[in-house]
Amino acid sequence: MSKNELERYKAVLEVRKAQIDASLRNRDEIAIEKTADAIDEVQLAGERELAIRNLDRESILLRNVRAALARIEDGSFGTCLHCEEEISPKRLNAVPWAPYCIRCQEAADRHEFQPAESLEELLADAA
Ligand SMILES: [Zn+2]
Known about the structure:
binds zinc ion, flat, mainly alpha
């Protein structure tokens, strides 16, 4: 991968990271406001659950984005973490934080291997 391409992915990932950071911060404020309003408890519980689910999703995304930025720094960006084949540019353009090639991602989705560990290790290395 050329330096220009790397810079481009890095810029996209930085923007995405800033967006998620901002959105995670805003959500805290919204949660406090709603609680103060004392809405119907059932509705509140439902909203809280939804907020937590979204929070989980955003947190995972943020972790993936951070890990991808770390891979740009250490030069392993664009290489599948599982099979070490190159991830296709088409996939990286759609999902720049993708840690796996499409084949391995599908295998991970089917729980054929445990993807979380390698990401945690990567983050530990980056810290
Ligand atoms: Zn792979």
